[in-house]
Design brief:
This protein is 37% helix and 23% strand. The protein is of the alpha/beta class. The protein folds into three domains: 100 residues, 2-Layer Sandwich (Alpha-Beta Plaits); 110 residues, Dna Topoisomerase Vi A Subunit, Chain: A, domain 2 (3-Layer(aba) Sandwich), CATH 3.40.1360; 104 residues, 3-Layer(aba) Sandwich (Cytidine Deaminase, domain 2).
């Protein structure tokens, strides 16, 4: 197909021509103008239309072989589609070119604007692909560099130990205690500005002092080191809640979703073995259970003692069925959720932690018979059908 000067062209008529003898391009063009003259009236006379630029230069390609000729005709038009269709039909009335018989068949009318549109779309896709490949990485680097600068700028050195902290420690009623500077940065990156780091295994006095006047959530890595920091904080500071990263993960490497999930799943500090009630006003509840009578009535209590000894110091829990078989083993921090979501009937729960009011309420809803923990916290309301036991009751 010949290249047509599109300019202001709206349509291009594409036609095929065959003749009974040998002809040239000029013969075809002469026949088109000569045999259509006066056919459609002055308004659609091809010569006049070409003079005014409404019909472009007619392109003809002819090949002669074996005493015959055939080829193509392309006629650009800036007329509307109806007028262009009429001119296309007029081409098919031509039956002779020079001394030869001829037949012209219109194969179609191309809407040039559609073609242009397609080219624009294809080119835009190429340009966009180039932008993504060549420009976006630089943009991301700049954005990340600026964001990192802002985050680092927000970190303050807090207290006499110059602990890394977010800018809202003083203004906030609650603080999140993390292990190191990288953890503070990770929380800042996700919009949490009230975190402060202990920076080591020795708990700074600043943290101890803050714990006396603010609600404290300890948020540590899901490893042995995080567990040790939790235990030390429980001994020297007034901690309210414990949150842990998933097992084997560090706070600094968590995604935003994982950070907020861990903080939502925090547990009361008193539920962790060895942790005293976090604030002075909390009072310990002594369960009204006579262990000897329980043992006479239910031989499972002996098994409870063995299970508790196995769990001591592990911060884990067992969910048991009616025959005192272990259904599931979970971390103490996940106990409340695991019990609430259990699809199997749980008869007893034994865990290395403190029995809390929330756990009592969940156990009651799930019709659990026994809750066996290291100690019992501040229980305001205890269902009569639920028995609370501690190690002294199992002796």
């Amino acid at each position: 197909m010949s290249k047509v000067d599109l300019g202001t062209t709206k349509y291009v008529v594409h036609a095929r021509i065959e003749t009974s003898g040998v002809i040239d391009k000029s013969d075809v063009v002469g026949a088109i103008f000569g045999q259509t003259e006066g056919l459609l009236g002055n308004d659609l006379d091809l010569r006049e239309l070409q003079k005014t630029g409404r019909i472009g230069r007619i392109e003809v390609n002819i090949e002669s072989k074996g005493g015959k000729s055939k080829g193509t005709i392309n006629m650009p038009s800036s007329l509307d589609k109806v007028e262009t269709a009429i001119l296309a039909a007029a081409l098919e009335t031509i039956d002779r070119v020079g001394p030869c018989e001829a037949a012209i068949v219109v194969e179609g009318i191309e809407d040039v604007r559609v073609s242009k549109r397609r080219k624009v779309i294809d080119r835009a896709k190429n340009i966009l692909g180039t932008m993504v490949e060549e420009i976006t990485p630089d943009t991301l680097e700049i954005t990340e560099e600026v964001a990192q600068s802002v985050r680092v700028g927000e970190i303050v050195n807090y207290g006499r130990e110059n602990l890394p902290a977010g800018p809202n420690i003083d203004e906030s009623d609650a603080i999140i205690v993390v292990e190191g500077r990288a953890d503070v940065l990770s929380l800042l990156r996700n919009g949490i500005k009230n975190a402060i780091a202990v920076e080591g295994t020795s708990i700074p006095q600043t943290i101890v002092d803050l714990s006396k006047k603010k609600t404290v959530t300890v948020f540590t890595d899901g490893d042995r080191g995080g567990e040790l920091i939790v235990r030390e904080l429980l001994q020297v500071a007034e901690v309210d809640f414990i949150a842990r990263a998933p097992e084997g993960k560090e706070v600094e490497e968590l995604t935003k979703k994982e950070i907020f999930k861990a903080l939502r799943n925090k547990i009361p500090a008193e539920q962790v073995h060895g942790g005293a009630p976090s604030k002075p006003e909390a009072k310990e509840f002594k369960p009204q259970v006579e262990a000897p009578q329980v043992r006479k009535k239910d031989g499972r209590v002996e098994k409870f003692k063995k299970f508790f000894n196995d769990l001591s110091g592990t911060l884990k829990a067992y969910l048991l069925d009616q025959d005192a078989n272990v259904i599931k083993e979970v971390a103490v921090r996940d106990l409340a959720i695991a019990l609430q979501n259990s699809k199997e009937k749980v008869s007893a729960v034994i865990f290395d932690g403190v029995v809390t009011q929330r756990l009592v309420e969940i156990a009651s809803e799930k019709e659990v018979e026994y809750l066996v923990g290291a100690k019992v916290g501040n229980i305001i309301k205890k269902p009569a059908e639920l028995r609370l036991l501690t190690p002294s009751d199992l002796s």
